[in-house]
Write a structure and sequence with these properties.
- The chain is α/β, with parallel strands linked by helices and about 240 residues long.
- The protein has a single domain, classed as Vaccinia Virus protein VP39 (Rossmann fold).
- A seven-stranded mixed β-sheet has the order 3-2-1-4-5-7-6, with helices on both faces.
- Helix 5 links the parallel strand 2 and strand 3.
Length: about 240
């Protein structure tokens, strides 16, 4: 019996070292934590470093912002680099990435966020007002493909809604002409830019199809974690 326990322990240690995310997932299920804007710190939210409370130190300690650190830094940098930006977010859940865009963008920017069933919008709006950010955020409730499209309007569209292939493809087909020339299109959970990214089959398939079939309109950029990034070309859309 002692012999069996010894090798079981060795097997478990090997498994944890080789696949640590499995152990993290088990622990997270055993001790779920309910994050929201109720944890907003009593300090101004102005720069990327002010958002540290939204992140995780490991997958057990999952925070309000479901983006990984490198993904969030990439989106923050993109939003901050665009003066008077028009940003569209498809899918906000509890508003972590919405708040990130609000902090990153300048005072003349407009961030529109669409979600069919958002959580904690009241807390999000309170956090935005507390930090003088509410004037540039438009929170919409509804299905993304039902919203009106303005061609060549957005500097950045971030797609993080329906993660099925059909859902992601429907969002793309509806919004693909709305990105300005030289604007950015980003998909979450749609790439494997490093090991252990949280990529999903549907968005993965879609972004590969965009890469292969729509390169005249969208140039693929280097992946950042599970973010698949594209830059809109200057070629006008065919009528």
């Amino acid at each position: 019996m002692r012999f069996i326990r010894k090798y079981v322990r060795r097997g478990l240690v090997w498994m944890i070292r080789r696949h640590p995310h499995v152990a993290y997932d088990v622990l997270r299920q055993r001790s779920p934590r309910d994050y929201s804007f109720a944890q907003l710190p009593e300090r101004p939210q102005r720069n990327f470093e002010d958002l540290d409370w939204m992140f995780e130190s490991n997958p057990v300690n999952k925070g309000l912002l479901l983006l990984e650190f490198d993904e969030a830094a990439c989106l923050f940098r993109l939003a901050r680099s665009k003066p008077a930006a028009r940003i569209l977010e498809i899918g906000r859940w509890r508003g972590g990435s919405t708040f990130l865009f609000a902090v990153a963008s300048d005072q003349d920017s407009i961030v529109t966020s669409i979600d069919i069933a958002p959580q904690d919008d009241e807390l999000l709006q309170s956090a935005l007002k507390k930090n003088n950010l509410a004037h540039k955020i438009e929170l919409l409730i509804g299905s993304s493909p039902d919203a009106e499209v303005r061609r060549d309007f957005y500097d950045l569209i971030f797609v993080d809604g329906d993660h099925s292939y059909k859902g992601a493809a429907r969002d793309y087909e509806h919004w693909k002409k709305a990105v300005k020339p030289c604007g950015h299109l980003a998909f979450h959970n749609a790439a494997r830019g490093r090991l252990l990214t949280d990529a999903v089959a549907g968005p993965l398939r879609l972004v590969q199809e965009i890469t292969d079939r729509e390169s005249e309109y969208y140039h693929r950029q280097p992946d950042v974690g599970s973010l698949a990034l594209f830059i809109r070309t200057a070629k006008p859309w065919a009528v």
